[in-house]
Amino acid sequence: MATAYLNGTFLPLAEATVPVLDRGFLFGDGVYEVIPVYGGRLFRLAHHLKRLKNSLAGLRMPNPMSDAEWETMLAELVARNDGPDQAVYLQVTRGVAAKRDHAFPEVVRPTVFGMSNEVSVNRDTAAEQGIKAITLDDIRWSLCNIKAITLLPNVLLRQQAIEADTAEAILINNDLAIEGAASNLFTVRNGLLITPPNSNALLPGITRDLVLELAANHGIPFREADIPATDLYRSDEIWLTSSTREISPVIQLNSTSVGEGKPGPLWHRMIVLYREYTDAVRRGEAG
Ligand code: PDD
Question: Lowest CB count within 10 Å: 2, 75, 120, 132, which one?
Fold first, then answer.
């Protein structure tokens, strides 16, 4: 039975409940993080906690815990759940107000919730095969840099991708390819790795940043630049990155093959570097 954390207490996930007046339930008024765990160790924790802080600040919510308190709580959550490889889900809402009112309540205690699921070790095999994606209009709001729990557009977009027999939607805004419905976007053209620059239009992905760091450390040419939607079809490779999917090579976009219709050479190189990094996390030699 999975163990959850709710407002200071560890308890069975099935027993974790929040009042219906919680602003997360009524307004989607909260933020979240998804943090991978490799070999029982939290991956890039400092980066996730920094993004959490930024998201909370974006909603003008106080951070309910110090970094040290987050770390202690998360380590215990991981230890209480099964499996060396997990995905931690963390959510902070503005809390339970006395009545439903759009305006912030004057005094309220944030609701802090965490849970963790075991992750299958078969993800490498799935990645080898590559995924299909479609392009869809980006129907989200203008503060996509905040990791808000208000995910209705992302949910609708991902569902549309699934119903088109693909794994993810690549979102197009003003003729630019921005990111996936729940992932960041990279293209490769003539050996150059390209990803859109961070802005309010997209989530600053932790996986994205590590891919750029690995490229910089290993002499792989890269650029943070806008990607015109039409360039997607001229790309040799397309990747989608996230904490849960790591680096997924896209082998088909809409009805068109990407490159040779199989994971490309730079993806093969990057996934080796990425694996070296996650293995170092397992050994406690990287954060
Ligand atoms: N989503 N862009 C969006 C819109 C996302 O929702 C995510 C992650 C990313 C990738 O960020 P990171 O590399 O930090 O996971 C980019 C998580 C996994 C989710 O919603 O479940």
Answer: 120
